[in-house]
Amino acid sequence: MFRSVSSASLPQPKVDFLKGELHRKHPGVTNLKTVRLPEQLQLAAQSIIHRVRMPQLVERSQKLTNFLWSRKRAVEDLMLRQKAVSMEKELWGKAVQNIREDVDEQLLEDRIRKKVLSELRRTTHRWTPLKYDEDLSIVYMAARLAGGYAAVRRALNEIKKRHPSFAPQTLLDFGSGLGTVAWLVCKGWGDSLKEIVCVDSSAAMNVLAEQLLKGDDERAQPHIKHVYFRQFLPVSPKVQFDLVVAAFTLSELPNANDRADVVTTLWRKTNSYLVLVENGTKEGHQMMMEARDVLLKKQEKVVHDSRPASVFAPCPHEMMCPKLAKEPVMPCNFHQRYHPLPLPGRHECQTEKFSYLILSRTKPAEPTPEGLDWGRLIAPVLCRTRHVHCHMCCSDGRLQHMVVTARKHSRDVYRCARNSEWGDQLPIVEYVKEETEVHSDSSDLHPVK
User: Fold this and answer.
1) pTM score above 0.70
2) What would you give as a GO molecular function for this chain, any one (predicted)?
3) Which pick of 154, 232, 267, 437 has the fewest CB atoms within 10 Å?
4) Is 242 exposed, middle or buried (0-12, 13-18, 19+ CB in 10 A)?
């Protein structure tokens, strides 16, 4: 038999975390519905593809997508040396057991070194830089325009939703590629923006981004004004931008030192928010954590802006990522549905998996009330009868599997959980507990709707 519990007997949150919002629009909801490219951007991309008529474009774009998704970071020199020394010791150990008195040690040493080099060549990932010429830039546009746009839009929505008064006047997009960030920021903060600086080392990519802005018409005015394309970052360390974005850029850098230098330089140029986005793979997630560690732990010799970095999203804490501490290591990633460019054989909605990191110099306008905390949903939410399974990363730096019920967590938290999705935040609150009114002689306890 079910027990009947009056609404007054359910636990009541100590704080009003809803702030007058509906449960399906609670403050932790930052997910988006299926994302579409702006019509002008999609028409411009289709016009360029139709004009160029590149053979096997669909096949080449799929091949590039697979390459970028499976791409690993280059093995660092120190790790390579350590691996070589370990292999050499192992081979010497085996050789000593079978060594004969008449063996030439110099010859044996040469053989072992050759075997080590051969094995390293066979097993070590060969990282190669991509050089975006005119052809590869168009292939990249066909492969990544819509997916990249969807991922960055979802990341920027975190700022839009949680800091509604933020009105950036300047944007720096490092590794701007097709210029999609300019389209996104103009869509979200077009009224306040006065300057957009797009930096990409590929001249061909910059030309293609300008063509997209002009609707593939050289004589037309760009759809977005005050966009400036550069191949190098502004030199002065004192020049800052309200919003700095680097999307799918760190993976184009050859080693950890270069990534650390770039992240540090971008942070110097950040006035409010720095947004980093990468593929939702182990490599992409680990690059995000690398960048986070650099900015939270490294002390600069010359400080131009003394305001420290703090993690805005997605992490609810600044401790070691608990996902990196677990075996097997699984990436912390999120997903966004989107409509792809309408190419042959590509019409259905697709899903972009990505990892991201947002660091802030600005303190929250309203401090979190006592008795209220927010956890990040790091997996799909499983809604069942009268309970919801939520896998969360919490502010204490631990992963938690929370089974949310109305009786245990309050009706408001339960309804919020049912209306939340992977990537949203969910409130963790303290309650004022009331005695329950039991109208059944059954000893079994059942959660209520």
Assistant:
1) yes
2) methyltransferase activity
3) 232
4) buried
